[in-house]
Here is the input.
Amino acid sequence: MQPKSPPNPGRRKFLIAATSAVGAVGIAGAAVPFLGSWNPSAKAEAAGAPAVADISKLRPGELLIVEWRGVPIYVVKHSTESLNQIDKNLERLADPESNEEQQPEYARNKLRSRREGISVLTAVCTHLACAPKFYPQLGVNDFDNNWQGGFFCPCHGSKFDLAGRVYAGVPAPTNLPVPPHYYKSDDILVIGEDGDVT
Ligand code: FES
Here is the structure.
């Protein structure tokens, strides 16, 4: 039997990002139309372009949803409370050290991301690709008696912590993937490229 999705995520907070795709493929396509037969179409190139998001309005405990290549990406800004809890749940996780290749090397750390306090996660369950939902609040809820905050997949009950690490004993086999990403400035996050990794 499928677990029931809680009817109300409570203090769930999320924002939808206005993003822009980088590149000038549309201009090139218009100026040299005959190249279209063997160059990738502008639409295809735009679909592969990185997504650029302004994270300046993202507050601790909130989630920003950014679309990249047609896939939602969750950007989590951790609260002090969740940062204090993030390592208190390791025995319940299947891959707490992120040993599986589910993130770039620079994101193989506690929050699985590049900047302390922020996690960037592909919002696609690693079981059968449903969208896990954001439940940041700690405590007892409909699917866990000692929830430490994170993501719950309503399709078959998989659970992930706030860094996208999967719980042991759930259908999802691996942590949520971390997409390539970097920070162009304090407020600008680029998803889809590694930037300077040296
Ligand atoms: S798709 Fe998420 S648990 Fe099955």
Notes: Residues 1-12, 21-40 have pLDDT under 50 and may be disordered.
